[in-house]
């Protein structure tokens, strides 16, 4: 007897609710001992540029929209080739016990360290070499991911895809700036502006259908996106980043909520098998499913958002569980919808098999996005939303996810560059305009440079999943060291850390052998470098643990944590 998709989804939703209610509270109270009366970096170091206390709902919107990006739709869209059950289990269980713990823990450790990024915090836990190694991994990950995002968004804006998404995306930036000024300079309340912002976002989504924007070339769109990313990186956080991510989060809530309502109204059956351990051309399900799904269950990029921008905006420690753990549950919900869209969103088993006849047929950024849009549009049609309108609406949501990651990530890369400049003694990189220019230049490389006729970012995208998951393991490693030095329970971060490092390094090693066999030298060289940096950082952490066990006191490396 087959399981009804709606029953499977209800079980997942109940698991999310129970995890947030009980497990997240346990972590907040017993493991990290959050204290709402302790001043946060946003309050203590407020500068109205980077450090700005935010309303908890606004900050949740920033965190949710920034961490989500495209990956929660892309990974599950190919992982379902192994069946809907493994993908669904990992997305839910992985998010509850690994991904959300990772995001929440990174946020807490950062606010206990003056809102510094995870790379800088690593210096105080592991040592200067550890910080440098961490910075190099972060630099590659963000530059690669955002270079690919710039390329993908430019493609989605082209006449062959969704030019209807251009007008809503552009005008919403202007509305966000107006909202930022109204709140922080005009003293307006957030509730009234929320209603106006949401109404405008929805109206623009449908207005774009009537007025599609065509004309700019692929390269021109890329330059415009890079210019936007630069502006988002250097402007005060309250002027563009906070309000834009908040408005986009409202659109995302409505969009994802509507998708689930459409799914329930459709009450479909699974077109995909529950489990298929040997699909044509696919690698072994274990451990590859954990890395393929990536952001839907756990993502190292989230630690950078938590410790990079959100930690500088958290008004009280009491909001950390809601923002850190809660936002990851929200992203996992999108991953769950991607699984449902790509397994129950097909009208028949034959239609599903046509799309998933082999690993090669299912793989690819364009194919993944198309599968998600196709499935969710099918759900929306049940609500009486025409296919053209539903497709455009979903496309606007997809672009919004990507843009909010682009603006936040560029700012994070700017922080990373500044910290690297501090290590190298290059004072100029402490200037936010100079650091942002370096960040944009790195993103430009992956968005524009071609190797053998193909964009470098797309070639190296095969390394994103492993690098991202590796960073999650390393972030959990840093958090575990933090807890060790405070005699706190370790198992809740150490077990996920061990799992993430073991599974990811196994996949990386397997991929390196494949790159060697196939003669893919760029992938081999880059992947081998990242693998080496990761193993080196783990070794540095082991040495730090040994030092601590010989002398279990908070030494000079931990001066940054004295604000506790």
Summarize the structure in words.
This protein is 73% helix and 1% strand. It has 564 residues and is mainly α. The protein has a two-stranded antiparallel sheet. A hairpin with a 2-residue loop joins strand 1 (450-451) and strand 2. Helix 11 (241-266) packs across helix 14. It starts with a helix and ends in a 14-residue tail after the last helix. Mean pLDDT is 89; it is low at 555-560.
Q: Give helix % range.
A: over 70%
Helices and strands, in N-to-C order? HHHHHHHHHHHHHHHHHHHEEHHHH
First and last CA, distance: 56 Å
Low-confidence stretches: 555-560
Largest sheet: 2 strands, antiparallel
Gyration radius, to the nearest Å? 22 Å
What oligomeric state do the depicted chains represent?
single chain
Q: Provide mean pLDDT, rounded.
A: 89
Using DSSP, what is the number of strands?
2
Shape: globular
What is the strand content? under 5%
- Largest sheet: spatial strand order: 1-2
SS summary, helix count: 23
What structural class do the secondary elements suggest? mainly alpha
What is the gist of this entry?
With 564 residues, the protein is mainly α.
Chart the SSEs and their pairings:
Elements: H1 5-31, H2 41-44, H3 56-68, H4 71-79, H5 84-111, H6 118-125, H7 128-157, H8 166-184, H9 190-210, H10 218-234, H11 241-266, H12 285-293, H13 300-308, H14 320-341, H15 349-355, H16 359-362, H17 365-382, H18 387-424, H19 432-448, E1 450-451, E2 454-455, H20 456-460, H21 464-484, H22 491-518, H23 521-550
Antiparallel strand pairs: 1-2
What are its keywords?
564 residues, 2 strands, globular, mainly alpha, 23 helices, single chain
